[in-house]
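User: Can you model how S-adenosyl-L-homocysteine sits in this protein?
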Amino acid sequence: MDLERVNALLQGWGEPAYRGRQAYEAATRGLAAEWGDVTALPVSLRRRLQSEAPLRELSAAETQVSRDGTVKVRFETADGFPIEAVAMRHRNRRTVCVSSQSGCPLACTFCATGSMGLGRNLTAGEIAEQVLVLASMLRDRSERVNNVVMMGMGEPFLNYDAVLGACRLLNDPAGFGLGARQMAISTAGWVPGIERLAAEPIQIKLALSLHAPNDALRTELMPVTKRFPLARLMAACRAYRVATRRRIFVEYLMLDGVNDADGLAIELADLLGTEGFHVNLIAYNPTGSPYRASPPDRVAAFAAVLAAHGVSASYRRSHGQDIDAACGQLAVRGAAELRRRRSRARRSVAGSRSPASR
Ligand code: SAH
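Assistant: Here's the modeled complex, given as structure tokens:
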């Protein structure tokens, strides 16, 4: 999926410029799975590309389909890191949720991925490829991708350039052609990323995982708050809104007895004000942590307090729970793989270092 490299290779082999365009279109708009399928290219060229720059870098290790139509694919990178991507259905629209990192270093206490630690950042190609693979699976069912969200494993703003690179690739009207407004990046509150996104010409949506309206509670749930306290985070959000005139989607996970009291709804309303934010209350999906989802009447009461204070809010239904595809459930099983992979890497580093250190 490194299509710039493919183009450079084709040029280096003395191929005419239109071959590069044909290859690019087949890989993006055409959703080709391998060069062998790209019949617009001569057979010899297909073979050469196949051996020197295979089209797909990720292997799909496992695919699951849930009762509600959610599709989850567990991928492995060429060097063995696990990642997951999910396609959900809302009415007749399809949202694809992709990973930006294998694992995540931010260690939010309620999140399965957070308990894995970081494997590595994904490349722009690996991020875009998750979308293209799911798009081709959906195409087989006569469905198409309407939205892409960077809400899978990882913190997208810790891998800013690759994430934006993937968004630009997916956005390109000569290729996959997904509208910028059909893409969203979700952050745990990594301020430098919010500041950089505010200055981008591309109109991608921003979602902020807030989950608590004060530093003390938020630090308990999301250690990243120590690095970027709410005052700094909210200042960055205000600057983003001034610069882009776009509103920010706030995600607020409803955790029973932890962050769901009426008093906290009032604090949240004070923090956000009545303009510029839309709050999505999210059902907590069980991941083996001690947290439980708030009961429905508590969620309704919390939402009513927000509404009474003029804050726009809605409740996000959970998809794909039966296949562990819902928010925060990605790669619970991948965690074991990642641990194995890391200890192998440590052993080989130790092995290669020991002669020098002796
Ligand atoms: N790191 C980014 C994007 C990945 S997490 C972020 O924090 O926004 C995507 C969303 O899933 C976040 O809002 C996260 O808080 C939420 N989430 C994590 N674990 C969850 C769980 N068990 N149930 C429901 N949502 C969860």
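A couple of observations from the model: The pocket of S-adenosyl-L-homocysteine is lined by residues 108, 110-111, 151, 155, 186-188, 209, 251, 253, 282, 284-285, 287, 327-328 (CB under 6 Å). The longest strand covers residues 82-90.
User: Helpful, thanks.
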